[in-house]
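Q: I'm building a small set of examples for a reading group on sequence design. Run inverse folding on the following structure and report the sequence directly after it, with nothing in between.
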C-alpha cells in the first residue's frame, strides 16, 4: 500500500496547500476510516450474531490464563458484547485521532516543509494493525494476571498507539523547527521543549491511570499502546531514511525487537 506523492508546498497558507493535495489522498483516508468502521462493527456483529460463543471464547476473546496466537491478534478487534459503549467509545476516539493525524501529518507538516518520509504512513498503519496487536496482548496478559483479570479485549490499545503517533508528529514538527533555527537561544529552546515533552507525556500517563480505580480497564495496555505508538514511528522513520543497507538492517532489528519483546515477555511469569 502506498500513497501518491503530494506536491511541493506553495508559498501560501496551510489551507492553500491543502487544496493542492491530490483527491486520491483524501479518498484513501476516507476509505481507511470507512474500513476501520466496517472492520470493527462488522466483526462485532459477527461475534454477536454469527460466530458460536464457544469459538469466540476459545479463539477470539483473550483468555489471559490460556492465550493463543489467534486470540492475541483478534481480541484487539472485538469488544465487550455486554457493553455497547465499549465499541462506541473506541470507534469515536479512533476516528478523531485518525482525522487529527491526517491534518497534522498530511497537510500541516508538508505545508511547513517538514514532511514525513515517503511510505511512512502506510508502513506505520500496517504495523499498528497487523503486528502491534500481539505486543498489546502480551502487555495485557502480563498486567491482567497481576490485576486478577481473566479476559481482555478491545481496540483501545491500538487507539492509544494512534495517540502516540499524533504526539510524535507534533513533536517532530516542533523539534525540527527549533533545531533548524540559528538563533543564540536554540540550546535554551531545546531544554524548554524537552521539559514540555516530559510534562505532556506525564499528563497523558496520569490521564491513563485515572481509569485504574475502575478495575475494569487494563490501563497498562493503554500505556503500552501510547509508548509504542511514540517509539515505532521514530524507528520506521529511521528505517525509511537509512542511507545504506546496514542502517536499514539495524533499524529493522530494533523495530522487530520493540514489537517482539512485549509480545512474549509474559512467558517469563511464574503463573
Amino acid at each position: 500500500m502506498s500513497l501518491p506523492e503530494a506536491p511541493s508546498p506553495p508559498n501560501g497558507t496551510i489551507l492553500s496547500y491543502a487544496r493542492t493535495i491530490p483527491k486520491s489522498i483524501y479518498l484513501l483516508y476516507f476509505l481507511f476510516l470507512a474500513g476501520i468502521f466496517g472492520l470493527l462493527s462488522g466483526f462485532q456483529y459477527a461475534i454477536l450474531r454469527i460466530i458460536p460463543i464457544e469459538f469466540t471464547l476459545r479463539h477470539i476473546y483473550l483468555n489471559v490464563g490460556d492465550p493463543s496466537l489467534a486470540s492475541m491478534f483478534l481480541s484487539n478487534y472485538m469488544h465487550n458484547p455486554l457493553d455497547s459503549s465499549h465499541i462506541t467509545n473506541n470507534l469515536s476516539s479512533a476516528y478523531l485521532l485518525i482525522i487529527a493525524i491526517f491534518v497534522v501529518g498530511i497537510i500541516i507538516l508538508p505545508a511547513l516543509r517538514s514532511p514525513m518520509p515517503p511510505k511512512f504512513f502506510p508502513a506505520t498503519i500496517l504495523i499498528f494493525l497487523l503486528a502491534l496487536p500481539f505486543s498489546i496482548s502480551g502487555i495485557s496478559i502480563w498486567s491482567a494476571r497481576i490485576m486478577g483479570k481473566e479476559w481482555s479485549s478491545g481496540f483501545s490499545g491500538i487507539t492509544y498507539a494512534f495517540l502516540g503517533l499524533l504526539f510524535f508528529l507534533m513533536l517532530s514538527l516542533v523539534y525540527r523547527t527549533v533545531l533548524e533555527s540559528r538563533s543564540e537561544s536554540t540550546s535554551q529552546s531545546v531544554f524548554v521543549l524537552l521539559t514540555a515533552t516530559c510534562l505532556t507525556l506525564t499528563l497523558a500517563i496520569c490521564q491513563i491511570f485515572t481509569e485504574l480505580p475502575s478495575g475494569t480497564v487494563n490501563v497498562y495496555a493503554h500505556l503500552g499502546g501510547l509508548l509504542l505508538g511514540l517509539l515505532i514511528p521514530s524507528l520506521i522513520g529511521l528505517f525509511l531514511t537509512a542511507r545504506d543497507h546496514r542502517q536499514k538492517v539495524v533499524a529493522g532489528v530494533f523495530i522487530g525487537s520493540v514489537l517482539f519483546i512485549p509480545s512474549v515477555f509474559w512467558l517469563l511469569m511464574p503463573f
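The longest helix spans residues 84-111.
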